[in-house]
Amino acid sequence: MFHPLVVFIGLRYTRHRRNRFVSFISAISMVGIALGITALITVLSVMNGFQRELRERILSLTAHARVTAEAGTLADWQALRDRVLSEPGVVAAAPYIQSEAMLLRGEEVGGALLQGILPEAEAAVADIAGQVVTGSLAALRAGDFGIVLGRDLAYQFGVEVGDRITVVSPRANVTPAGLMPRLKRFTVVGVFATGMLNYDRAMAFAHLDDVARLFRLSGPEGLRLRLADIFQAPQQVQALRAGLGNNLRVQSWADEHATFFRAVQIEKTTMFVILTLIVAVAAFNIVSTLVMVVTEKQGDIAILRTLGTSPAGILGIFVVQGAGIGLVGTLLGLLGGLLLAANVEWVVASLEHLLGMRVMSPEIYLISELPSEIIPGDVLGIAVVAFLLTVAATLYPAYRAARVQPAGALRYE
Fold first, then answer.
1. Could you tell me if 103 and 212 lie in one domain?
2. What is the DSSP string of 212-236?
3. Total count of domains within the chain
4. Which of 10, 134, 242, 304 has its CA 20 to 30 A from that of 345?
C-alpha cells in the first residue's frame, strides 16, 4: 500500500500545479490545522500554568495536610507532633489556631481569617515569611500582640508597620451586664503579599499564644504538616488516619481544595475537546481537497490501474497526499504553539501596554499574571490527535479513488 512509488506520487499530487484552486484549498487546510494546534497548545499551557501558580500560591500559605481534633483543642500537641513526625513522608509539623475575627480601626470595620502560629515552627511548613514585603514574621513574639496583615487588608484599614489595630473575637464574655465582646489591640509588625486577592484581603497572622489568649483556648486546634511529596498527600493522609485513630481528623490540601482543582481540571478537559473540534474542522477540509483531486485525476488513476497498480496502491496515494498536508500543518502548529506558549506572558504584557488595559485584573481573577507551563505529554497528545484526524479525513476520498474503474474513466479521455 505504501510502496515508494505510491509515496512519490502521493507527495507529487500534494503540489498541484495545474489547478491553483486545489492548491489554495490545501494551503487553507494546512493553515487551519496549524492555527487550531497553536491555539490548543497555548490554551492548555496557560491552564497548566494557571493550575501550577494557584497550587504553589495556595500551598505557600496552607499546609500539605492538617491534623485537627474532632472537637476543641489538642490536649498534648507536642507529643502528637513527635508521633506524626515519626511517620514516613512527614517532613515538618507546626501547631496553629484558625478563627474568624473582626478588625477595627477608626470607623473602618472588616472581617479577617486570623491564624495563630509559631513563627519558628511555621517556617518549616509554609513559606509565609517569604511572602512578607514589609516588616518581619519573626517579629511575632508571645505577649507582644503583634499581627501580620495581607497587603489589601492593610490598605483597607490604612495601616503600616508600627500602627495599631483592634481585633475582636467572635467569642464573647458573659458578664452581669450581658454579653461583652472580647477585643485586644494588636500592633502591625508585617505585611505580606501573595498576589492572590482572596488571601491578601482576608488573612492575618499572629503568635499562637496571643491568639489563644484572645479566643480563650487552652492550646492549638491542630497541626499543619509538610510532606515530602505533595502529590502523594492523599495516600499519605490515608496512612496517617489509620495510624492516629478516630479521635483526630486528617485532611490533605487536595481534600480542602478538591472542588476548586477538580473544576480547573474539568475546564481544561472541556477546552481540549472544544479546540480539538476546531482542528477537526480544518482537518476535514482535506476531504473536499481530495475529492476534487480524485475527480480531476480520473484519467491518471485509470492509467495507473492499467499499468498494474492495485486498488490498495491507489488508496495509499491519496492517503499519503492527505497525510502530507496534515503532517505539514501539524508541524507548523507545534512550532507556533510552542513559541506562543513560551512567550505568552510577554505577548500579553505587550497587548496590555498597547491597549492600555489589564487582561488579568486582580479584582476579578485569583492571580494578576498569565502564566504558562508546557507539558510534553500534552503537546505529544495534541500532535497525535491532530495527525490522526487528518489521516481519518483522507479515507473516504481515497476509498472512492480506489474504486475507480479504468474502462469507465478512460471512456472520455
1. yes
2. HHHHT-SS-SEEEEEES-GGGHHHH
3. 2
4. 134
